[in-house]
Amino acid sequence: MPEQPPYLRIADELRQRIAEHVWEPGDRLPSRAQIGQEYGVGENVVRRAQELLISQGVLEGRAGSGTYVAEPRHRVRVVRSSAREQPEGSPFRADMKAVGRQGDWESRTDAKVPAPAEIAARLGIAEGELCVRTGYEFLADGRPVQLSTSWEPYDLTAGSLVVLPEGGPHAGAGVVNRMAAIGITVSHAVERPEPRQATAEEASLLGIQKAALVTHIRRTYYSDQGRPVETADIVVPAAHCEIVYEIPISRA
Questions:
Q1: CA–CA distance from 187 to each of 70, 79, 222, 248 (Å)?
Q2: pLDDT tens, position by position, 220-242
Q3: Cα–Cα–Cα angle for 220, 224, 229, nearest 5°?
Q4: Residue 112, phi-psi category: left (phi > 0), alpha (psi -120 to 50), beta (remainder)
Q5: Residue 213 contacts residue 55 (beta carbons within 8 Å)
Q6: Which domain of life is it from (predicted)?
Q7: Percentage with pLDDT > 90 across the chain
Q8: 75: which residues sit within 8 A by CB, 6+ positions away?
Q9: How far apart are the C-alpha atoms of 32 and 46, rounded to whole Å?
Q10: What is the pLDDT confidence band of residue 162, given thresholds at 50, 70 and 90?
């Protein structure tokens, strides 16, 4: 059997100390130099071990202060289901309320943004065609738990009351309900989840370690005519959230 990489061994040692209450939640760990000297490894090995434990929610790094044992934090349940589209209210807020948390979000919309190649392909439009782009930061009790960047073809909603997803009388109503307001029936969505490491920007927004594990979901909504009407990149930190898919069952 191949020998375990040194940083995994150190991560196991640190995790064991926490399990045995040598270090309690909120305690500051010794410096990397001290830990490295104790275990006979270099500071880079200790850094990799700590980064792994931070990505798993066991430790947390505080800029300019050091590394601490993380307070116990229950993972937020994020439910993915077409059945959760509601005429009023937000499925995200409903999910947060179900676990005793306050759900909210912040957003920023930019109109007439040229579509990058990948987004254009997902929307079935030419690269550079104009889109409405909205960035979202979803919050649970004021703490970020999910990011999303949404793209809609500008020519689809231009001149209508729903051109701005978070503006006008249909603000915050969601893609399905907003499209219905202009006579477009959304029939289904396709999601493609995959694990990857967080970018530096994502880590900063989510308050997680750079390169921590996240689930990246590429979602596209389609009209009953088969046209893509919106596509989004959703980023969920693995250590803080669990993703649950509800699958409606049709009965004849």
A1: 43, 19, 6, 14
A2: 999 999 999 999 999 998 877 88
A3: 35
A4: left
A5: yes
A6: Bacteria
A7: 60
A8: 239, 240, 241, 242
A9: 6
A10: very high
State the pLDDT at residue 121: 98
Q: What are phi and psi of 245, to 5 degrees?
A: -100, 125
3 state DSSP class of 159: coil
3-class SS at 237?
strand
Q: Report the C-alpha dihedral over residues 95, 108, 191, 240, rounded to 10 degrees.
A: -50
The first and second tokens of residue 250, run together, are 């049709």
Residue 131, exposed/middle/buried by CB under 10 A (0-12, 13-18, 19+)?
buried
> Rounded CA gap, 224 and 222, in Å?
7
Distance CA 237, CA 56 (A): 10
Write the CB contacts of 133 (distance below 8 Å, at least 6 apart in sequence).
109, 110, 113, 149, 150, 151
